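TASK: fixed-backbone design
INPUT:
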């Protein structure tokens, strides 16, 4: 993947490579590695291209009658047609023999049960969920005159989109898509986020293993173990049982043992733990939609539905975070909510988003002098106090971060 990023995408963190790669000058990228059902590893990646416009700007220029915008639309469609292919090169052209074989083996689609696993049966139409069908055909790419949506050409409805250079270099099946609308961008972001947060252990398997652990716990003699020891052993058995049932392919195990990355990114990110902020807002400013008044009929019915002996256990919104210090040791970290509440007057106008992304809490070393009886002076004592550091810290780190704003780049996945 590193060779793909450097050689094919031509990404340069210092932004000195103005020639770019197969997609142009790459501004940023983010990709995550996932394992298929049969264990093979593959990567889903978003690529931001330098100079690309956001979907709203593309739509505005596509619908504009100005000569400059019309020329822009033509150049954009020509770029997409040159980058994305969906037809198998003819055979037996000797210059395209290798590409013909690769596209036929890797990109040609044959329908299977997986294509129709969400089909409910008649009278619903039986369509491939991958939107691949032999009737799909569009000879040229164009813009929709009413919506401004890009309609790319489709020369073979059963061939998945590919880039010829990537296919010939990587020699495996692939897919590529231009994110030219807000709906597509949201769909791709949700798709990758779902892969990142997806649990490897299925819910029904977890419950089955918990049941097995409880049964095994009954083999112990209650007279030999007190309640606390038996409870701890139960938790251990539950954890061991669930872990033992997780299915990991040989490729995944080898990747973890060899310390290969499970994601690839050009930028660094900061985590925002939103739950603590949300709980605080809900307590301070209760929404009428979420918390109806007691005079409301629905609230009255809900009160009747609650058991009279119900106990309010409250919400435990305490934020527990861990991280690594400068030496790589695991340390506990403070609450982001508490840090924001105590940010001081200088940062009073800073939003939560800017505070998390632009402010660091660091250790500040100061000197404190104390005197014993008489004029004898003790050695200096160093102590640590926490201080919030904002713009200056970011200015120092800016040289190490890739430049550019990710809000104005086109996406290719």
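OUTPUT:
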């Amino acid at each position: 993947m590193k060779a793909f990023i450097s050689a094919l995408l031509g990404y340069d963190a210092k932004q000195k490579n103005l020639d770019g790669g197969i997609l142009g000058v790459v501004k940023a990228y983010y990709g995550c590695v996932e394992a298929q059902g049969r264990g093979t590893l593959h990567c889903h990646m978003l690529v931001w291209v330098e100079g690309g416009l956001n979907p709203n700007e593309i739509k505005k220029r596509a619908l504009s009658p100005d000569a400059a915008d019309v020329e822009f639309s033509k150049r954009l469609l020509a770029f997409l047609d040159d980058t994305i292919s969906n037809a198998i090169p003819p055979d037996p052209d000797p210059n395209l023999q290798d590409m013909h074989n690769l596209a036929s083996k890797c990109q040609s689609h044959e329908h299977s049960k997986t294509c129709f696993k969400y089909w409910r049966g008649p009278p619903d139409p039986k369509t491939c969920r991958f939107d691949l069908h032999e009737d799909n055909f569009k000879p040229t790419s164009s813009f929709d005159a009413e919506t401004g949506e890009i309609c790319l050409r489709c020369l073979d409805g059963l061939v998945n989109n590919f880039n010829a250079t990537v296919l010939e270099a990587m020699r495996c099946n692939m897919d590529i898509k231009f994110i030219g609308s807000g709906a597509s961008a949201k769909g791709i972001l949700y798709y990758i986020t779902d892969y990142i947060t997806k649990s490897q252990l299925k819910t029904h398997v977890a419950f089955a293993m918990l049941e097995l652990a409880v049964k095994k716990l009954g083999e112990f003699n209650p007279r030999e173990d007190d309640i606390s020891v038996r409870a701890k052993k139960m938790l251990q058995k539950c954890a061991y049982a669930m872990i033992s049932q997780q299915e990991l392919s040989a490729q995944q195990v080898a990747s973890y043992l060899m310390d290969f990355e499970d994601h690839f990114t050009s930028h660094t990110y900061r985590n925002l733990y939103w739950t603590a902020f949300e709980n605080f807002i809900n307590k301070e400013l209760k929404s009428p939609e979420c918390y109806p008044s007691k005079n409301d009929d629905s609230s009255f019915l809900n009160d009747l539905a609650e058991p009279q002996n119900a106990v309010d256990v409250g919400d435990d919104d305490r934020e527990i975070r861990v991280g690594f210090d400068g030496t790589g040791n695991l340390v506990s970290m403070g609450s982001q909510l508490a840090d924001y509440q105590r940010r001081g007057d200088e940062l009073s106008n800073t939003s939560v988003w800017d505070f998390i992304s632009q402010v660091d809490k660091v250790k500040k070393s100061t000197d404190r002098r104390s005197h014993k009886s008489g004029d004898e002076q003790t050695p200096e004592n160093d102590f640590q106090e926490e201080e919030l550091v904002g713009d200056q810290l970011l200015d120092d780190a800016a040289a190490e971060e890739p430049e550019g704003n990710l809000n104005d780049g086109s996406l290719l996945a």
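COMMENT: Confidence is low (pLDDT under 50) at residues 298-316, 370-386, 391-411.
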